[in-house]
Write a structure and sequence with these properties.
- The chain is α+β, with helices and mostly antiparallel strands.
- The chain has a five-stranded mixed sheet.
- It has three domains: about 180 residues, Four Helix Bundle (Hemerythrin (Met), subunit A); about 80 residues, Orthogonal Bundle (Helix Hairpins), CATH 1.10.287; about 150 residues, Heat Shock Protein 90 (2-Layer Sandwich), CATH 3.30.565.
Length: about 475
């Protein structure tokens, strides 16, 4: 059953319960009102009966027949009142009790009539008059008392039933809501878990029994999406591999062509002019060949470092020591290049988990790039600090060089991309990027032309 249908069914059940409660309450209210109307009538009757008894006592005390006539008048008016409210009284106390009340009243009226007709007070009539009057009065009070108790009983039972019915509706609503919400939340958690897995690159699917409701359709759609993403990721990876091969091939061909052409030209000139070269000229040409060969060797080495990075030997280390080591190695280069160095290394810097040699390679590469960006001299600053929330260590390398054009920034970590012209291989930053990523770190760059460039290395703090 779908969730929508379950909600509709639960609402129907609650509405039916509420209607039943309403019908029950209405019926009880009508009954209470009927009995309350009888109680009002009974109060009037009792008042009339009381007046009859008072007239009756006056007759016995003063033997005044006018008192009997007053009783007859009151009996007549009472009978009329009972006839007018006959249906309400019958509904309140029942026909049987109404008939008994009428019989008591009629018997009392007969005794009064007999007494009036007798002309003299007889003890027998007096006794009957007292008995019938007392019986009418007592019966009237009795049924009135019974009806008052009945009203209180109905109100009390109605109150309890309404409370129980309200609790039943409330419990039903809570149970149904809890059941549906848990079912929804369970499906939402599954979908959320799968979505997080997909965001991490794990294209799993939700297994087990899939509900036959709206969330079942959603889970099926998400499973289908995950499978499709997995298939497309494989296609994308394959296409990226092909694209990378093309870029690498083009880059290698371009980088190797220049030194190979130079070697070829030098060799041809050497062969053609061999007889005219003295020893000094021959050695000069051979040195040029040696230089171009070393250039090829450097390109191949960087390419191997990029394509097959060496396995890192990770150890707990102090990044400040690695920075100092890099600065010591580059000290002469900085002096010769007229570079003003500023180092701000944070004390008590948390340790990191690194391959010291690889990280030294990254720092030297970045410092070298900064030196080359400031051919006429400039300022270089290196700082270390604890990252946000104390979970990382940052190394910031800033220079006052010519900067990198904004359109080149997204590509500076791409292989064979260089802004140095023939002097650059375009692999230094790519290799550095790979090393930082292997250390589960990040490297960022900010640059403005004619202002300078800042590289930020972020490495996770070492945790035992």
């Amino acid at each position: 059953m779908k969730i929508e249908q379950k909600i509709i069914l639960s609402n129907i059940i609650n509405v039916v319960l509420l209607v039943l409660i309403g019908v029950f309450s209405f019926q009880n209210l009508e009954l209470v009102l009927t009995k309350l109307r009888f109680v009002e009538i009974a109060d009037d009757l009792n008042a009339s009966f009381l007046e009859m008894r008072l007239s009756e006592k006056n007759f016995f005390l003063y033997h005044d027949k006018a008192s009997l006539l007053e009783i007859k008048d009151k009996i007549s008016s009472t009978e009329k009142s009972i006839d007018l409210a006959h249906e309400d009284i019958a509904r309140a106390i029942g026909k049987e009790n109404l008939e008994k009340l009428t019989v008591h009243l009629r018997e009392y009226a007969d005794v009064v009539e007999d007494t009036v007709s007798a002309g003299v007070v007889k003890s027998v009539l007096e006794f009957r008059l007292r008995v019938k009057g007392r019986g009418l009065r007592e019966y009237s009070q009795e049924i009135t008392q019974i009806e008052r108790k009945s009203v209180n009983s109905i109100i009390g039972s109605s109150k309890n039933i309404l409370i129980y019915a309200f609790l039943a509706v409330l419990i039903t609503a809570i149970a149904v809501s809890h059941f549906i919400s848990q079912k929804i939340l369970r499906s939402v958690r599954e979908v959320k878990k799968l979505a997080e897995s997909i965001s991490e690159g794990n294209f799993n699917t939700i297994t087990g029994i899939i509900p036959k409701d709206e969330f079942g359709s959603l889970i099926t759609a998400v499973n289908t999406m995950s499978a499709e993403l997995s298939r497309r990721e494989e296609e994308l990876i394959q296409s990226k591999k092909l694209a990378s091969i093309g870029v690498l091939t083009a880059g290698v061909a371009h980088e190797l062509t220049n030194p190979l052409n130079n070697i070829s030209m030098i060799t041809q000139n050497y062969i053609e002019l061999y007889d005219y070269f003295n020893k000094e000229n021959g050695l000069g040409l051979l040195n040029k060949i040696q230089g171009e060969t070393e250039r090829i060797e450097k390109i191949v080495k960087n390419l191997l470092d990029f394509s097959k990075p060496k396995e890192a030997n990770l150890l707990e280390s102090d990044m400040n020591k690695t920075v100092r080591k890099a600065l010591k190695l580059m000290n002469n280069t900085l002096d010769i290049s007229n570079i003003e160095l500023t180092a701000d290394l944070q004390k008590d810097l948390p340790h990191v988990f690194i391959d010291d040699n690889q990280m030294l390679q990254v720092l030297i590469n970045l410092i070298t790039n900064s030196v080359q960006a400031m051919p006429g001299g400039g300022r270089l600053s290196i700082a270390t600090r604890t990252g946000k929330r104390g979970e990382s260590v940052e190394v910031i390398i800033s220079d006052s060089g010519k900067g990198i054009p904004a359109e080149f920034l997204p590509h500076i970590f791409d292989p064979f991309f260089s802004t140095k012209g023939p002097e650059g291989t375009g692999l230094g930053l790519s290799v550095s990027y790979g090393i930082i990523k292997n250390h589960r770190g990040q490297i960022r760059v900010e640059s403005r032309q004619e202002t300078g460039t800042t590289f930020t290395i972020e490495l996770p703090v070492y945790k035992q």
